[in-house]
Amino acid sequence: MILYKTIALQYGRYLETGLSGGEYDLVARVGPTEETRIQRQGILHDLAAARIYLLDHRAANYLDSLRMDVQGMPWEDRPEAHIQGYVREVDFPQDLVWVEYDSRKL
């Protein structure tokens, strides 16, 4: 199951029942609070408005190579301003964009 759906299901279950959404939901298991409920309600609202892109392995490879062009290789030291300048030039179709791919296929 994609991460987007997993988050939506776990947070939705938490809001509906007040119980943890699963074994990986440590925040809800350790100390559920009203603040947690409000935060998760806001996250679900934002996710509902997000533009979702599910990339196949070819598109994910392309995006990863683009990331390396912008950030540089691990041994390179590129200034943060260079990366921020590039990101500012990108015009996304919505305020929140969710990009997900299957990393096991890379």
Tell me the fraction of residues in β-strands, as a range.
Answer: 5-15%
Q: If you compute it from the alpha carbons, what radius of gyration comes out, rounded to the nearest whole angstrom?
A: 18 Å
Low-confidence stretches: none
Class based on secondary structure composition and strand pairing: mainly alpha
* Order of SSEs: HHHEHHE
- Quaternary arrangement of the chains shown? single chain
How are strands sequenced across the largest beta sheet?
A: 1-2
Give the overall form.
Answer: elongated
Number of strands: 2
The average pLDDT is: 79
Helix content: 55-70%
Largest sheet: 2 strands, parallel
**Total of DSSP H or I helical runs spanning 4+ residues:** 5
Distance between the amino and carboxyl termini: 17 Å
Offer a few descriptive terms:
9% strand; 5 helices; mainly alpha; 106 residues; 2 strands
Compose a concise summary of this entry.
This protein has 106 residues and is mainly alpha-helical.
Task: Explain this structure.
The protein has 106 residues and is mainly α. The chain has helices spanning 3-17, 26-30, 34-49, 57-71, 80-89, and strands at residues 51-55, 97-101. The chain is 58% helix and 9% strand. Strands 1-2 form a two-stranded parallel ribbon. It is elongated, with a radius of gyration of 18 Å.
